[in-house]
Design a protein that fits this description.
Layout (H helix, E strand, L loop, with lengths): L5 H18 L2 H4 L3 H22 L5 H9 L2 H4 L4 H6 L7 H25 L2 H6 L7 H27 L3 H4 L3 H24 L3 H7 L1 H35 L6 H15 L4 H13 L9 H4 L7 H7 L2 H9 L8 H7 L20 H16 L10 H11 L6 H14 L28
Helix pairs in contact: 1-7, 1-9, 3-4, 4-7, 4-11, 7-9, 9-11, 11-12, 14-15, 14-20, 14-22, 15-19, 18-19, 19-20, 20-21, 21-22
């Protein structure tokens, strides 16, 4: 992004001003400058290592600062790392200010709550479990401030409605930040113990090892996702009429899964299922996929083999889980007249019933060689008409509710006028790219 919208710049300026007001009282706190400098240096080192080697953010040092220092002093700890870091995207100044102000406000809020609940005295006295309650409240406030700020920047930069921009941010951050908070509390207690700051810093060693293992897992997952994207792009190239169809089906599947209240892991699985549902077309002759006229019965039988081809292609990708069943059964019909096995009702896996609705919805709302795109409301009405015979009524109702509430504005990298290979950096919420 070469430029930020004016309202985004205003938002960053307001957050930065608020952070500056939080750190102004530092001289009156009589906080030890050597402690602030040491924590800031350790945080800058950890942040550089984690961000550039592993990816992500490292919060234990920030939370240790919130538990050890007065709130204005604790808010100084993240500033050097953010202000001195290299920024790849423009505008660099605004992004640097955002990276500084965001954690600074979160640490100030966490420190203020910890201080008010008597957490500092509990840390000095090494009193357990008395120290856990203030620390837990501080972690909660830390997550809450970060979620509020992140939701705000999402709303002003990507025009996401406010009621959706904060959805899920707090819930997703609580568990990992709680682990960081526990490490930060251990650092603070050791810092105040007779063993001093050196012993406190040793807490970071197992955290770094666990972070490395976590990063390795994510690298492996990224490699799997790159493989999936390559397969999808191969299908898009082979069947040009359905370019972008796989990604849109993945996004529609996510809409349905979220509306049904599925957990994040299943939502991700349904996304992969939608993205890969047509991968078996790689085994179908190109001339059949691109044929303009009607198919003969023999040609139709060949095309109807693509779910089985796709299942064979992905059966070795273990992390796909139930998505493999969706790829195999997404053309089954509720009345048993579908293919490849003629399953009926609840014999059809739930994930396949989700993808079937998403697939049909995108087929109707996209222009093909043999049909023009229908309006979204017309497509939803047609799905509702076929509910109970071809489609699962619960899945159709979920898609109808989601589309009527949020609209249908898919972001598809394959639709962009670029060469055969395209990529997506990050698309949040239902606009996630594989």
């Amino acid at each position: 992004m070469e430029a930020l919208p004016a309202r985004a710049r205003g938002y960053v300026a307001a957050v930065s001003l608020l952070a500056a007001l939080c750190v102004l009282p530092v001289p009156r706190t009589h906080a030890p400058w050597w402690a602030i400098a040491l924590l800031a240096a350790v945080y800058a080192s950890c942040e550089h290592l984690v961000r550039h080697r592993f990816g992500g953010t490292f919060y234990p040092v920030l939370l240790a600062g919130a538990f050890l220092l007065p709130p204005p002093a604790a808010a100084l700890v993240p500033l050097p790392a953010a202000l001195l870091c290299r920024v790849e995207q423009r505008p660099a100044a605004a992004r640097r200010l955002w990276r500084a102000a965001r954690p600074s406000l979160a640490v100030w809020g966490a420190g203020a709550v910890h201080w008010l609940l008597g957490g500092r005295d509990a840390v000095v006295a090494c009193a357990f479990p008395d120290a856990l309650l203030p620390a837990g409240a501080a972690v909660l406030v830390f997550c809450l401030v970060l979620s509020l700020l992140d939701g705000g920047i999402l709303a002003v930069t990507e025009h996401v409605p406010l009621r959706r921009s904060w959805r899920g941010l707090l819930a997703r951050s609580l568990a990992p930040v709680a682990v960081h908070g526990l490490a930060g509390l251990m650092m603070a207690v050791l810092w105040r113990s007779p063993y001093g700051p050196v012993a406190a810093l040793l807490v970071l060693l197992p955290m770094c090892v666990s972070w490395w293992a976590f990063a390795q897992y994510h690298r492996e997952r990224a490699a799997h996702q790159a493989t999936i994207r390559a397969l999808v792009q191969a299908v898009d190239i082979k069947d040009g009429y359905t370019r972008g169809h796989s990604e849109r089906v993945g996004q529609a599947s996510v809409l349905i899964a979220r509306e049904l209240g599925m957990d994040d892991a299943r939502v991700e699985t349904l996304r992969f299922a939608g993205i890969l549902h047509d991968v078996g077309k790689l085994g179908v002759p190109t001339r059949l996929l691109r044929k303009d006229g009607p198919l003969t019965p023999e040609e139709r039988r060949i095309i109807e083999l693509h779910p089985e081809y796709g299942h064979e292609m992905v059966r070795g990708i273990s992390f796909l889980g139930e998505a493999r069943a969706a790829i195999l059964h997404h053309h089954e019909r509720l009345d048993g007249s579908g293919y490849p096995y003629g399953l009926a009702g609840t014999q059809i896996p739930e994930c396949a019933r989700v993808v079937a609705v998403a697939d049909a919805f995108d087929a109707m709302t996209s222009t093909r060689s043999y049909s023009r795109a229908r309006p979204v409301e017309v497509a939803v009405t047609e799905l509702e008409r076929c509910a109970g015979t071809q489609f699962d009524p619960a899945m159709v109702a979920a898609l109808a509710r989601a589309v009527r509430a949020y609209g249908w504005h898919p972001t598809v990298t394959a639709d962009e006028p670029t060469p055969a290979t395209t990529s997506a950096d990050r698309i949040p919420s239902t606009r996630t790219a594989p």
